[in-house]
């Protein structure tokens, strides 16, 4: 069951967040080149910096990472007052 959920999440990621250049990659390739890359996320001031390991830079370039992060940010859901989350009590 967990494998089915992981497969569906991988396909969802591929369809919604990946640039056209890598949408045709298999899920195994995505896993090996995107998720298993050595990296460190550094928080400094108001910025998050993704510092890639030296060997990972060949597969993951800024021109590849930026569109993915941008598409993921556009998928974010921000509640509005009309959704009922911020209603006033009388």
Summarize the structure.
The chain has 3 helices and 2 strands; from the N terminus they run H-H-E-E-H. The protein is of the alpha+beta class.
Amino-to-carboxy terminus distance = 46 Å
Strand content: 5-15%
Q: Helical segment tally?
A: 3
Helix proportion: 40-55%
Largest sheet: 2 strands, antiparallel
Query: What best-fitting shape do the alpha-carbon axes yield?
Result: globular
Q: Can you write the helix and strand succession as a string?
A: HHEEH
Instruction: Determine the mean pLDDT.
Output: 76
Strand tally is: 2
Name the strands of the widest sheet in spatial order: 1-2
| Cα radius of gyration in angstroms | 17 Å
SSE class: alpha+beta
Q: Which spans have pLDDT < 50 for at least 5 consecutive residues?
A: none
Written overview of the protein:
This protein has a domain at 36-69. 43% of the residues lie in helices and 13% in strands. A hairpin with a 2-residue loop joins β1 (39-44) and β2 (47-52). The chain has helices spanning 2-17, 27-35, 62-75; strands spanning 39-44, 47-52. A two-stranded antiparallel sheet has the order 1-2. With 90 residues, it is of the alpha+beta class. It is built from three helices and two strands; from the N terminus they run ααββα.
How do the strands and helices of this protein lay out in sequence?
Layout: H1 2-17, H2 27-35, E1 39-44, E2 47-52, H3 62-75
Antiparallel strand pairs: 1-2
Considering the chains and any ligands shown, give keywords for the structure.
90 residues; alpha+beta; two-stranded antiparallel ribbon; 3 helices; 2 strands; 43% helix; globular
């Amino acid at each position: 069951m967990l494998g089915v959920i992981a497969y569906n999440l991988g396909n969802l990621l591929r369809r919604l967040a990946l640039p056209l250049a890598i949408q045709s990659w298999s899920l195994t390739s995505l896993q090996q080149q995107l998720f298993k890359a050595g990296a460190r996320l550094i928080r400094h001031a108001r910025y998050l910096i993704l510092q890639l390991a030296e060997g990972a830079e060949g597969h993951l370039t800024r021109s590849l990472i930026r569109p993915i992060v941008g598409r993921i940010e556009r998928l974010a859901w921000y509640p509005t007052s009309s959704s009922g989350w911020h209603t006033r009590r009388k």
